[in-house]
Amino acid sequence: MTILPAAPNVGIRFRRVDLEGRPEIEARVDFVSATNRSTSLAKGSAKIHTVEHVLSAFAGMGVDNAIVELDANEPPIGDGSARQYARLIQTAGIAAQSEPRVVYRVQTPISLESGESTISIFPHDHLKITCTSADKNGRFTQFHSVQLTPEIWEQDIAHARTFCFYEEIEFLIKNGLIKGGSLENAVVIRDDAILTNEPLRYPDEFVRHKILDIIGDLSLIGAPISGHIIAIKPSHTSNCELARQISQQMRKPLQTAQSFAPPPPKSGSPGSESDTPPSIADGQSLDAVQVMKILPHRYPFLMVDKVTKIEGNRIVGVKNITMNEPVFQGHFPNHPIFPGVLQLEAIAQVAGILMLKQAENFGKLAYFMAAENVKWRKPARPGDTLVIEVELVKSRGKIGRAKGVCKVNEEPVSEAEVTFMLINK
Asked: What is the pLDDT of residues 98-121, one digit of tens each?
């Protein structure tokens, strides 16, 4: 096995150099093919078994991008822990990269049961794992709870070896797992005896190894996470199912945003512009044509006629409200009022323009995700000029948060805090 550096956003990938074409498998839960006693990945005809210890080393030490080259279908087992992998990474060193490291913070609790395993995750400011380990008969019941950092992982988790019960060995051998298994790389429990070629490395080594596995399996979501994991008799099956459900939670905001956002026009389609979007810089103003080269929205949902001011984290846009707005056919006949939700959309669109000011975001799309502290103070009517003032208060990776206020004749008519996500066109 050889570990190679990788560019930002590559993630962790396994490369089978012994197979034609040197196929690669991304370390993502989408490619999990088996979870019986270990975690296996497969893509096409290429397979990799027992990836959890290597992945735990990357996740535990904060490595986001790496290529793992293998000339067989399984990493070297070493001594059954992640200690040797950690030493390889420490020897090579870890390099900082230019892209921001975005940690996914679990938003709502997730809980599931799989066989005898129960595993849950709850919102938390850091990654914390609380685990109870035991066999079917309750033997060797152990408990450990730890809040993880790279230093704590290396000291308290990395050295815990894999273990099995004597009655399981025949099953493992028959299924092609642990082909190189021995007391050199595993601890065997037979009845009440512990068979090992050295003393236990921790008094509760078994449960710590379970935590090591959880870290490796959950890294398959493809991003570091913050949350409190509570696991009772965890298995690779339960770990990977939790990873799938976390991945679904991660994708939900984008899926929701996409369901409410117009798709970008296809090149060459009627009304589309193929010109390069204009730059967005301090002191600049944007007319309607320039705005349409930045935003994908079109009639009747473009809520910005022009941008009059861009300065630092602040931007001012204008929407001229006329009686010709199609919304006035139903909102309300003989008493036209420009809807508050469209004012909210105007704030989101102006905020999206400001987010795209950053060079690394140039050419992307801003999808509206959430709105908080929304207040509508006065009605806006035909003939009014809606001035939309927005301040970007937070920008982290692909997520932005802004405060906006809509004014008519210098008086606020609505205000809100909006959150949006940037995606590639």
From this structure: 888 889 999 899 999 999 999 999
| Contact of 141 with 132, CB cutoff 8 Å | yes
Q: Which residues contact 421 (CB under 8 A, 6 or more apart)?
A: 253, 254, 257, 366, 367, 369, 398, 399, 400
Q: In terms of residue numbers, what domain contains 301?
A: 288-423
Q: Let me know if 236 is a catalytic residue.
A: yes
pLDDT in tens, 335-379: 999 999 999 999 999 998 888 877 567 667 778 888 999 999 999
Most confident of 138-147, 165-174, 350-359: 138-147
Distance CA 422, CA 254 (A): 9
Catalytic residue among 49, 144, 159, 236: 236
The enclosing domain of 401 has a CATH number of 3.10.129.10
Q: Under a CB-based contact definition with an 8 Å cutoff, are residues 138 and 125 in contact?
A: no
Q: How many CB atoms lie within 10 A of CB 26?
A: 16
**CA 238, chain centre distance (Å):** 19
Domain co-membership, 220 together with 310: no
Contact 200, 187 (CB under 8 A): yes
- Answer for the pair 307, 286: CB distance below 8 angstroms, yes or no: yes
Model pTM score: 0.62
What does the alpha-carbon distance between residue 130 and residue 230 come to, in Å, rounded to a whole number?
A: 5
Does the annotation mark 331 as catalytic? yes
Strands lying side by side in the sheet with 306-311: 306-311, 314-320, 385-396, 399-408, 411-423, 365-376
CA distance linking residue 121 with residue 130, whole number of Å: 10
Residue type, 333: P
Q: Are 306 and 242 contained in the same domain?
A: no
CATH number at residue 93: 3.30.1700.10
